[in-house]
């Protein structure tokens, strides 16, 4: 794609010179003499760099610059000023012109400045794409789920995001705690600032402290230079402390102090460092239980638990499974540059019925594996891993669907009645065949039919 430079000057002679010099150098040039036309053109077209005259009737170069800053902040603007009018140039630089050149200028001067602007524009463009893909990835809409429990979670995220309140995210492994932590950050006013994450379990206590708070040179063997900790790196952004339930008692005390005072010292340092951070923590433990057992400080628990977001396990929101499956099929088709696969209805039934002890992470892995390994255009039952088709797991999920009242005798009778009915239907109401399928005698079958008042199809 060739670079598009928009040139704006009320003097036609200068436009001709600009156009000639720039197109000789291989740029594609749009030359316009009317600022209003130029601004309209900007809205329509893909412009990489703008070169504008300072003094024009009706609208000055500064007005153009202000408009661009507001509406197309990623496009660098170069200003041309008349020889000697240095104030205008200084003013233009102050309000954010990328560069200025004084008329008359040489070919070299113009091209040097233009090529700098081009590089700037290309970087800006890349950055914008990166930013958009980040926002897309972590934007609220990437948290898939329309079930009631998930809608409640998303509403909490929405409400919590704008504030600086500390958020505690709990939920079983693989339920999306980290995803939600990122969603909170990227929906908050801190979105352009760092999101720094620390896994409290992955590091042993000694190392964890210097990771969190940093250290001074020589504070311990191996501390060859001063190092900034995650608290400093997260300044003006969000610090995500994952697996918070694993913190040692000593680190708990230190963390409590930072939460109260927002200041801390580097390991081996005396200087107090003040930070502006929002803290989000996550754990798959029951922290209140840990408090009762005495492994987690009660005061710290209450500091962390200002806003509490509890993520439901996947088996409690099975209606989201088809959405998630579709989402992951698309994701892995894109990642592996392969066509999207369909999924057979029976295979989907199995996925919806399974227990998912590893929650969404496990579902994602299963879909990824099917996308790569299923030979056909559709994922069938035969492509599913064996644990999904396991009978015991299906029983467990059937139990999940039972009503709240769990009276054993009553529930078993209902299940028995349903089974007898199912056996009859499957065997076209031939009672001998149905009793064989159930593994009971013909007389027992007749007794059950009577007991449950099951119509025998005649
Ligand atoms: N609602 C969701 N929509 C889409 N993807 C999700 C959702 N929830 C989780 N995921 C995906 O599932 C995977 C696991 O999520 P995440 O790492 O956030 O879980 P976690 O609760 O932090 O797990 P662990 O406790 O094991 O650390 C990630 O790839 C994440 O993108
Ligand atoms: Mg996690």
TrEMBL record:
One Gene Ontology term of the molecular function aspect: ATP binding
Gene Ontology biological process terms in this record: phosphorelay signal transduction system; regulation of DNA-templated transcription
Domain Response regulatory: 4-118
Keywords: Activator, ATP-binding, Cytoplasm, DNA-binding, Nucleotide-binding, Phosphoprotein, Transcription, Transcription regulation, Two-component regulatory system
Highest taxon of source: Bacteria
Keyword Nucleotide-binding: yes
Classification via InterPro entries: AAA+_ATPase, AAA_lid_NorR, CheY-like_superfamily, Homeodomain-like_sf, HTH_Fis, P-loop_NTPase, Sig_transdc_resp-reg_receiver, Sigma_54_int
Protein name per the record: Putative sigma-54 dependent transcriptional regulator/response regulator
